[in-house]
Design brief:
The chain is mainly β and about 300 residues long. The protein has 2 helices and 17 strands. The strands form 4 sheets. Strands 3, 4, 5, 6, 7 and 8 form a 6-stranded antiparallel sheet that branches. The two termini are about 20 Å apart. Pfam families: FKBP_C. It is an enzyme of class 5 (isomerase).
Length: about 300
């Protein structure tokens, strides 16, 4: 809802498999580089073996990925065609990790990642019938074999939360607890942007360009009603901050806040969606918004 930028290419269409014993079906395939760093890949001649091929090159000791988790990853994705084996997507090219919603990825990628642990490097050769199917994104053909290298940096389960304090700002009240509630007063909204840290976390401070994992709720002041919230489903979302990907208010309020914090903000139009508003949510160009955001983590 808050994004101003296009989602990563290979997330456009997005279950657990054991190791195959051979890296992605070929003893000649070589993947190098440190965990969390851009991998080097030397493809063998020819195309991969038939079927889904999965291997785990490094095994982490963190939490195990489960259905509905939000996995934070660094990854590269190639078309493995036995020729140029071209790169079609990479989190490294965007300068920040990506968020993978486990259970809603490509079928082959879901099978490769579910059950893996944080700290693991997983490689997967994915056949067309477990990839994008008949409607792939630009740059990928329906018959293309895909090859992923995925480093699992973090996992955030459904229901992840901060049991934080409540508070108030400009008459807006927020309750405490793991699932805060917003109450907007029946008065005119303030003209200026304002933000307040209601509960300051103990984690590292967020930096511009990082991916932050959050739970949040947003309300339109004039309607005094929530228009969007992650707490309904409990599944966190991830956004990059400080680079214009999200609305200006989030960039202003969330950069420099320690992970584990709860932030309340009052968002006049110039700090939100501006004159166009956001018709899909019924937000007009003149609407002031209110957000409460729990910053679960930053990468």
């Amino acid at each position: 809802m808050l994004r101003r930028a296009v989602a990563p290419l290979l997330m456009a269409c997005l279950m657990a498999a054991g190791c195959t014993g051979e890296p992605a079906g070929s003893p000649e395939l070589k993947v190098g580089g440190a965990f969390g760093a851009r991998p080097t890949i030397a493809f063998p001649d020819g195309r991969p073996a038939a079927g889904l091929q999965v291997d785990e090159l490094a095994t982490g000791k963190g939490a195990r990925l489960r259905q509905d988790d939000v996995a934070i990853v660094q990854y590269t994705a190639h078309v493995w065609d036995g020729g140029k084996n071209r790169l079609v997507d990479s989190s490294f090219n965007r300068g920040a990790p990506a968020a993978f919603p486990v259970g809603r990825l490509l079928p082959g990628l879901d099978r490769a990642l579910q059950g893996r642990t944080v700290g693991s490097r997983v490689i997967a050769a994915i056949p067309p019938d477990q990839g994008f199917g008949p409607n792939p994104p630009t740059g990928v053909q329906p018959a293309d074999e895909l090859f992923y290298v995925v480093d699992i940096l973090g996992a955030h389960p459904k229901g992840a939360s901060i049991d934080g304090r409540g508070g108030s700002l400009a008459g807006v009240r927020v309750t405490g607890g793991a699932r805060p509630r917003l109450t907007v007063p029946a008065t005119a909204p303030p003209a200026r942007f304002a933000a307040k840290v209601l509960d300051r976390g103990a984690g590292r401070r967020t930096r511009a360009g990082q991916l932050v994992v959050v739970q949040y709720a947003g309300a339109v002041w004039s309607r005094r009603r929530v228009f969007d919230t992650t707490w309904t489903t409990g599944q966190p979302k991830a956004f990059r901050i400080g680079d214009g990907t999200v609305i200006k208010a989030w960039d202003q309020a969330l950069v420099g806040v320690p992970a584990g914090s709860r932030v309340l903000m009052i968002v006049p139009p110039a700090y939100g969606y501006g004159a166009p508003g956001h018709p899909a949510y019924g937000i007009k160009g003149s609407d002031t918004l209110v957000f409460v955001v729990d910053v679960l983590a930053a990468y």
